[in-house]
């Protein structure tokens, strides 16, 4: 566990470092002579490129004058690591010496740079004191330059000879040396530069919490939560923070997408094996991949593998095999919306990111809406309204902020009204991917909750769903595991506002023009218009009719087209007229206010009856006698237990 304790204990000092600004290059190779260029330097350059480390390699031989070429100057100052490859012919030209002197100046001027010297078939002492063949070349060159320049070169040479580096002799295994140089360079880059976008805010607390889990006796940490909560960004940030302390690392982004778009298990295995071993590897089938991982990959001492966005199409056993084959200090990080998947990973602990609090959310929104950490004068109230709509979901906060970037206030106000009813297109697209993976039963229940039952005790709609053979216990469990909903401490259904907007928009798309042709209606205005115009269809399953000053008397004939209605809620209205043969499939009746039950209303299939706000006698009306015969009822108001029939 030493390596894990090491990076956890260093987290404070590492995070306190100011990363160097990102330049075009990360590594600058400095050398002289074709013997080095086409041998060691070329091999090292190729190796670094393979691992996508941006490396400057002067193939054009830009340095021709007395001063350093501007392109070379930018490359040196922008790079974080300098690798001078000093050979016997190194001092035969002023170019590498001028570059070396500038590297040393950059290191003295700004922290974060690193020099990794390589002494190629030359003694370190000869370089330091300008002796031997190296010294002869240096003295010959010195005759052509002034004393100040020579002094700078000597100081630079003395500086690099006092640093820890590598000496390459004719018997040195150059491949081993190149591998060691690469590991040292990668470690420095990871410690000084995060690859995660600078638009992220509030990420540090997530990094520390995941590190704490990695430091325990666990092999896998599962970052689990709803789509858009920032799981991938957290995984990337942790990867950048700790990967330098492992021997080999691999980050596989969006595994679900790879496997769902024609990618096979062996494609995934080939990616992992290639990243770990450092060269392209193709496996024919999963069994060969498993054997290859066991024989070649697991032998590497400490490995970090991140599998981003896995779902139930990912099979641990057929992809990586037995995780017990890996070194005890190897670690795995997975991100998923589905908590159930984590059960397949041994020694796994989950981390569930919280939604952003208002202060952090406002900062993130401001970054994307204004390019600053705080709203400008006159935009605070509007910004807080947008943050409220996003409800702490990072994906929504960033998307909404980007939409209103550099727009005037009229546009802001119009968009705010729209976002309160319809989710942002980018957010909807992401959330809908996970929705489409639900079963038909799960989709049905999800839409019911999104449209009506947020804040409802779980048991009551479950009676309705069970009567419709939607298997609510299983479906609700799945929706919870996939972070679509939560059940709070009062056993009430909870759903994030962005999922609520998604669900309602899915229903809205059933018929954009005619709300009464949809399966669900929740807008009181739409309900009033439908009843007034005597519209409706047998497709409508759920109807809420709330307090209205326009319609108080609700005649039976206005419901005659609603034969498919399962749920009816009437508040502060009175059902009147002939209900014989109307609403034959009603399962749940909720009456609020003085609403006696019509005597001819079909109650044979009712499973939930709720009545609030009136004396018992008023509520029951002439239908009271029939209630004794309703064997299908699963829920009755508490007052029914005290009524003598």
UniProtKB/TrEMBL annotation:
Family annotation (SUPFAM superfamilies): P-loop containing nucleoside triphosphate hydrolases (SSF52540), Toll/Interleukin receptor TIR domain (SSF52200), Winged helix' DNA-binding domain (SSF46785)
GO biological process, one term: signal transduction
Recorded GO MF terms: ADP binding
InterPro entries linked to this entry: Apaf_helical, Disease_R_plants, LRR_dom_sf, NB-ARC, P-loop_NTPase, TIR_dom, Toll_tir_struct_dom_sf, WH_DNA-bd_sf
Residues of the TIR domain: 23-161
Coiled coil: none
A Pfam family matched in the record: TIR
Chain ranges passing through the membrane: none
Protein name: TIR domain-containing protein
């Amino acid at each position: 566990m030493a390596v894990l304790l090491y990076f956890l204990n260093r987290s404070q000092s590492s995070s306190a470092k100011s990363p160097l600004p990102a330049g075009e290059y990360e590594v600058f190779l400095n050398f002289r002579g074709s013997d080095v260029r086409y041998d060691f330097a070329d091999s090292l350059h190729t190796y670094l490129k393979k691992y996508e480390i941006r490396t400057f390699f002067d193939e054009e031989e830009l340095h021709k004058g007395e001063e350093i070429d501007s392109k070379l100057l930018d490359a040196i100052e922008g790079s974080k690591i300098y690798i001078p490859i000093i050979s016997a012919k190194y001092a035969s030209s002023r170019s590498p010496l001028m570059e070396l002197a500038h590297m040393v100046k950059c290191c003295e001027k700004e922290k974060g740079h690193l020099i990794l010297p390589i002494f190629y078939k030359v003694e370190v002492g000869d370089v330091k004191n300008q002796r031997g063949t190296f010294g002869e070349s240096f003295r010959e060159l010195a005759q052509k330059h002034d004393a100040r320049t020579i002094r700078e070169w000597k100081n630079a040479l003395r500086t690099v000879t006092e640093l820890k580096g590598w000496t390459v002799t004719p018997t040195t295994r150059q491949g081993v040396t190149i591998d060691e140089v690469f590991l040292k360079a990668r470690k420095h880059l990871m410690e000084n530069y995060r690859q995660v976008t600078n638009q992220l805010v509030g990420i540090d607390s997530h990094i520390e919490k995941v590190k704490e889990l990695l430091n325990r006796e666990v092999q896998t940490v599962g970052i689990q939560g709803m789509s858009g909560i920032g799981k991938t960004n957290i995984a990337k940030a942790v990867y950048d923070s700790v990967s330098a302390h492992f021997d080999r690392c691999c980050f596989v982004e969006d595994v679900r997408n790879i496997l769902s778009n024609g990618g096979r298990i062996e494609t995934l295995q080939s990616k992992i094996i290639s990243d770990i071993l450092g060269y392209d590897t193709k496996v024919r089938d999963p069994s060969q991949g498993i054997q290859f991982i066991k024989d070649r990959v697991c032998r590497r001492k400490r490995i970090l593998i991140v599998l981003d966005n896995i779902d139930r199409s990912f099979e641990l056993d057929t992809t990586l095999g037995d995780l017990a084959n890996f070194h005890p200090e190897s670690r795995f990080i997975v991100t998923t919306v589905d908590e159930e998947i984590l059960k397949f990973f041994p020694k796994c602990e989950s981390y569930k990111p919280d939604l952003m609090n208002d202060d952090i959310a406002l900062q993130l929104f401001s970054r994307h809406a204004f390019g600053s950490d705080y709203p400008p004068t006159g935009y605070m109230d509007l910004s807080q309204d947008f943050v409220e709509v996003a409800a702490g979901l990072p994906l929504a906060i960033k998307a909404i902020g980007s939409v209103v970037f550099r727009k005037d206030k009229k546009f802001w106000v119009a968009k705010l009204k729209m976002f309160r009813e319809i989710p942002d297109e980018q957010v909807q697209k992401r959330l809908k991917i996970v929705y489409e993976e639900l079963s038909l039963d799960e989709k049905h229940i999800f839409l019911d909750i999104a449209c009506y039952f947020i804040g409802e005790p779980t048991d009551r709609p479950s009676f309705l769903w069970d009567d419709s053979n939607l298997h609510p216990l299983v479906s609700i469990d799945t929706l919870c595991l996939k972070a679509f909903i939560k059940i709070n401490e009062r056993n009430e259904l909870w759903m994030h506002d962005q999922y609520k907007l998604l669900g309602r928009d899915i229903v809205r798309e059933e018929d954009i023009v005619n709300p009464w042709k949809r399966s669900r209606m929740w807008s009181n205005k739409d309900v009033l218009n439908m009843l007034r115009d005597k519209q409706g269809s047998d497709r409508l399953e759920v109807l809420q009719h709330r307090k209205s000053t326009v319609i108080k008397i609700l005649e039976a004939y206005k419901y005659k087209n609603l034969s498919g209605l399962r749920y009816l809620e009437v508040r502060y209205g009175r059902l009147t007229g002939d209900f014989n043969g109307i609403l034959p499939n009603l399962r749940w009746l909720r009456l609020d206010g003085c609403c006696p039950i019509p005597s001819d209303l079909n109650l044979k299939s009712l499973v939930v009856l709720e009545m609030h706000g009136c004396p018992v006698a008023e509520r029951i009306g002439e239908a009271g006698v029939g209630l004794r015969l309703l064997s299908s009822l699963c829920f009755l108001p508490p007052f029914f237990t005290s009524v003598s029939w």
